[in-house]
Automatic annotation (TrEMBL):
Residues 16-121 form the Thioredoxin domain. This is Thiol reductase thioredoxin. Gene3D superfamilies: Glutaredoxin. It comes from Brevibacillus aydinogluensis. Coiled coil: none annotated.
């Protein structure tokens, strides 16, 4: 009877240890991940102009997590203000939880791509950073 209890106990301890290790690994990986944060407003004319450019260019960077913050949502607005957004549209590159770059206004696809490439940590497939 005790052998069965010991085996179950060891199995439970092993399972909990694996779960804790997975959570720690995931948290560390997320903290070091590069993320693009797009701050916008549906009622902003510049955002309406820039959003298609944002969506087109960001597809070239599939390795990056993208977060969209609508300033009409209270939680999104609070996060946008915490990052340092003062106008819409604003794009942030966030690395390790810290703002690594900030781009304000409706810019061209070329200017937006150049901004993202400046903060790129992984090379684009089939493209060099100079293109």
């Amino acid at each position: 009877m005790q052998d069965g209890f010991k085996r179950r106990w060891k199995w439970i301890v092993s399972l909990i240890s694996c779960a804790v290790a997975a959570i720690v690994f995931w948290a560390g990986a997320s903290a070091n991940q590069t993320k693009v944060v797009y701050v916008f407003s549906e009622s902003c004319g510049y955002c309406t102009t820039f959003t298609p450019t944002f969506e087109q260019v960001i597809r070239e960077f599939p390795q990056w997590q993208v977060e969209r913050l609508d300033v009409h949502d209270k939680r999104d607005l609070a996060e946008a203000e915490r990052l340092g957004a003062e106008v819409t549209p604003t794009v942030f590159v966030v690395q390790g939880g810290e703002v690594a770059g900030k781009l304000e206004g409706a810019v061209s696809a070329t200017a937006f791509r150049r901004f993202l490439q400046k903060h790129l940590t992984k090379p684009l497939s089939g493209k060099s950073n100079g293109e």
